[in-house]
Structures are given as C-alpha cells and as structure tokens.
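Blackboard transcription, Thursday session:
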Amino acid sequence: MGTPVLSRLERLPRRGLTVLSLQGLSLLVPGGWSNITSAEALIESVIGSNDAALIAQVRARADQLSRARHEGYGRALSVYDAVNRSQHATAGLRVLAGVSAGVPLLKRIADLTPPGDTLQAVDLGLKVSAELLAFTQVNGLPGDSFADFAAALADYGSEARLRMAALVTFDGLLPLGDQALQRLDGLLGQASAIQLRQLPAYRRMAGLMPGRNDQAHLGFLRRGVEQWVGWADGLVSQLGLSGQRAVQALETTLGPWQGRMDQLAVFLDAFTDTYAHTGVQAVARRLVERAAAEI
Amino acid sequence: MVMPRPLRWVVALLLAAGLLVGGVLLLPFADWLPGGTVADVPLQQVVNGSRFNRLFPRSNPELRVTMSQEKRGFSEARLKQGDQVIALLAISDTITAPEARAKFEQAEERLKGWPLVEQGPHASALLVADRFQVKVIEHGSSLDAAHRHGVLENFDLQGLAALGSSPLPRS
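(Written on the board underneath:)
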C-alpha cells in the first residue's frame, strides 16, 4: 500500500501554512504541540532511549508492519488523504465563488456553490466518522466490552488533543459559530443523501462504513457524531475554545485577519492540510508503540 | 470481412495481452499476493489480540489499566496513575517476529521460570512458552526495573503459556 507510514511522517512539512496554523491553535491547548516529522525523534520519545541499534530495530519492524496490507495502517492513511482532498475541493469551489461573485459574467458559479451550514455539518460529520474508522483500522477494537472501547477512544482523544481541537475549531466553531456543537445534530437531521454525495471523500469512505446505502451511512454519521459531541463539548469548555479566541490565536502566527470567521474557515480548508498532517502523526505514534513492543 | 492471417494473429495476441493486463490491474488479486500479512505468516497461525486482553494485570485504585490497541498477534494497554501514563504494557505473538525471540537466548535472569531481558534503560521483556513476549515500557521515570518486574508478575503468565499449546512452526 504505497509508502510506509514513517516515510510519510518524514515527508510532512516543517514550515508553511499548515504548521503555522497548528502552532497558532496550540496556544490554546495546554501541553502545546511539537511538530514531529522525524521518525527517529518519535521512536526516541516512545522508548525513552537514544540507542541507535534499538531505534533501527523499531524502525525496521514499523516498516514491516505498515507494509502488510491486512494491518490497516495504509487504509487509515488513505481515509485521511481522501478527506483532505475532499476538503480542498469543496473549499476551492467556495473561494472561487467568492472571487467570481464580484464579476458579473461569473455570477453563475457563485449560485452553483453549495450553501453553507448543512454541507459544512455533513463535512464535519464525515471527518468525525473518518476519525472513528481510522481509529479502528489502526487500533482494532481494544478491550472486551463497549466500555473498554469507549475508554480507549477517550484515552486517544486526550493524546490527540490538538488534533481534536483543530477539528472542533476549524470545522465547527469557525464556520458554524460558537453554538456549532449544539446545532450539529439538527443540521445533520436536515442533511440528505445529495449533500453527502457532494463530498468527494464520501466515495472513498463508503466502502468502509457499515450499512449499504446512503441513508444507512447518514445514520452512521449521526450516531458517530452523537457519541463524539458530548466528548468534544467537554473539550471546548475545558479549553475555553471559541471562534473569537481561535482567531486571536491564529493571528499570532498567521498575521492579522480582516475578514469574517467563516471566510477564515474556508481559507484554512482550502490552503492547509491540518487534518491529514496530524493524522499521519497520530497513526505513526501508535505504529511505533506497537513496533517497540514487538521487537 | 477476411483478414490476412498474420493480422489475425496480431489482433488475437493484442486482445489476449489486453485481457491479461486488465485482469492483473483491475481484478482484486491483491489478497492473494504475498505481503498481505506481517512477515507473510498466515493470519490463522497468529493468536488474536482479543485472547490476550483478559491476561493483563487488573486495575487497582492507584493504577488503572486502559486497553489501547488490539490487533492480530498484539494487544496493548496503558498503565495510568491518575491521568498520567506511566507505562505501556503489551503482549505480542512472536510468530511474526522470530528475531525478537533471539534476544532471550542470552537471558541470565528468570521470572517465574521464564527468561527475562532488559531492553535499554526503560523496557523489560519476558518470553513466555518460547512464543509470547510480554513487555513493559516505562513512560517518564517512575517505574524502575524492579517495579517493571513487579508489573510483569501481575500478568496471568500461566494463562498465556496455555495459549501456546498450538505448535509453533520452526523458523
């Protein structure tokens, strides 16, 4: 399945808009975030030793594991990639609409672009489900009971706090406003299969989702989001996240922003890869943990 | 329409080649190709991680055990004190990693009869029934070697050894 996970990690950017926006957001997340793009540094932080021979062993095992197709690491990354491409495509359309709305001849394009909130909610729902699917591809179904599984998910959430904070702010609070999480279920209730089909990522994920048709998948989306919203709401109140605070934090790294919040969200969607970037890092960490335990 | 004989051969060969190439590219042969499983060991021979779960140490009021990964031949948990992760606990089936067994050949220490080695300053590993590796990797610095051995003792090692009754093919 293409490139091993750790090689993908090493190809992640060290600077650029994606890294800057994550660094900006990390000001709101205690414990901060460091942009790990070196496999050696990651392995060192997991095994707590800089013994070169040991690191090389872990690396070799990790590459062997991520090359095995049945293990799901490649599948998890391809889900992230699909979501990323889809995000660029829809946001690109909206940027185009914003530009073309000023030009009389091109006004038609502006009318074509999907109107905001419901589609945005479906997009967020799709990202949450993608996260759930990728989690099970990488970690299996840990434990023997649903409670064990829920505990494993919550644990993962606190480990990947910046990733979750980015998901909540960039795809929830900024485009949908501070009541995003409360509105989410209502918005998803209005969503139809047509909106689902407008998102390119859906096509890649449909095969991995339980259920056979769009309606069943929409149901899966809503149930996944229902589970997640409670947890995400806790994160929002714990970190005191809001659209305004996120904009302020982002301005420290990206520079001043004059426009509206939802425009900032479209801009971030179109020009950054935060979801795939932190996704690769999260998968790589779990893979290295396993490799370190198996050598 | 009558085609000259050589042209007929060329067309036939082109069609056959096209079918072959299309078949290889489009049909789901991927599952039959080597490289689908770790070290090409068939999945049936690897003990599933779900059978390891109940062998982990039990949580107690001070230390909590949260399961975090369950794959074929591997299961992992986090040992937590409060909200702090202090160690990773794992059981793995070494059938896909024969090189992992090799390090136990020079093991001098034993724990409950099974060979025990230290891997760097933060990890202790135990090989049970010549097949299952039990490992404790310290996070931070609150679990020295003696403590780690204590944690290893709390695994259900007898239950683990019993899983290994299925014969292990020699590598």
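Lecturer's comment: Chain B has two domains: 1-33, 43-163.
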